[in-house]
């Protein structure tokens, strides 16, 4: 009897005003269990980074993918999230039998899939994907901070904090901001009028 190979999938970065949306796909190895997996938002940044290393070392397969700011603006954030998820699943070195996704929607991968609300809290493979997506996106935003320190991306990771909104008003919009997101769109409209 063959073991069912489950791939957990989750995204990070649907809410921010800047930066790509990231997704990860993870197939855990039953022979190498990882303790402490949970929804990435409920784990400290340091613990997430430690777990990300462990996941990459012990998982049967893992992949991380993204959809760009331009794709987010062109097709909307939900579709861009699903696109990043699809890219992550298709990049896996091992093909899963089923794809289990956190949330309400599944990417089109051609594989049997199921959407699981709060799956990042209840399904270890989805928790692992949540951690990889979040750590990859956070690292990308910290890298962006090096080139655009005026926005303080390292602190808020592109989310619409008061400090980020103030920086947007002061410095204007960068090429990494999502022009279809309301606070950014409203600033653009003010510049035009």
Overview of this structure, please?
The chain has 193 residues and is an alpha/beta fold. The chain has helices spanning 45-58, 69-75, 77-90, 119-122, 124-147, 153-156, 162-171, 182-192; strands at 6-12, 21-27, 61-67, 98-102, 113-116. It has a domain at 6-137: Nucleotidyltransferase, domain 5 (2-Layer Sandwich). It is built from eight helices and five strands. Strand 1 (6-12) and strand 2 form a beta hairpin. The longest helix is centred in the C-terminal third of the chain and has 24 residues, at 124-147. The radius of gyration is 17 Å and the shape is globular. It starts with 5 loop residues before the first strand and ends with a helix. The model has no long low-confidence stretch (mean pLDDT 95).
Largest sheet: 5 strands, mixed
Q: What is the name of the CATH class of the domain at 6-137? A: Alpha Beta
Helix content class: 40-55%
Q: Which consecutive residue ranges, at least 5 long each, have pLDDT under 50?
A: none
Please report the total strand number as a whole number: 5
What's the mean pLDDT score?
95
H/E element sequence: EEHEHHEEHHHHH
Indicate the CATH architecture of the domain at 6-137. Answer: 2-Layer Sandwich
Report the structural category: alpha/beta
- The CATH topology annotation of the domain at 6-137 reads as Nucleotidyltransferase, domain 5
CATH superfamily of the domain at 6-137: Ribonuclease H-like superfamily/Ribonuclease H
Q: How large, in whole angstroms, is the Cα Rg? A: 17 Å
């Amino acid at each position: 009897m063959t073991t069912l190979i489950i791939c957990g999938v989750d995204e990070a970065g649907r809410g921010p005003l800047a930066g790509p949306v990231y997704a990860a796909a993870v197939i855990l190895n039953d022979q190498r269990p990882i303790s402490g997996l949970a929804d990435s938002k409920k784990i400290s940044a340091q613990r997430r980074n430690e777990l990300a290393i462990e996941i990459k070392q012990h998982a049967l397969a893992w992949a991380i993918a993204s959809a760009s700011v331009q794709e987010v603006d062109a097709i909307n954030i939900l579709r861009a999230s699903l696109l990043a998820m699809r890219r992550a699943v298709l990049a896996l070195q091992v093909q899963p039998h089923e794809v289990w996704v956190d949330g309400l929607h599944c990417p089109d991968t051609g594989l049997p899939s199921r959407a699981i609300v709060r799956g990042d809290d209840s399904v270890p493979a989805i928790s692992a994907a949540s951690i990889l997506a979040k750590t990859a996106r956070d690292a990308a935003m910290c890298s962006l901070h090096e080139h655009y320190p005026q926005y303080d991306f390292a602190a808020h990771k592109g989310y619409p904090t008061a400090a980020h909104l103030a920086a947007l008003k002061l410095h204007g919009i960068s090429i990494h901001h999502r022009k279809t997101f309301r606070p950014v769109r409203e600033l653009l409209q003010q510049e035009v009028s």
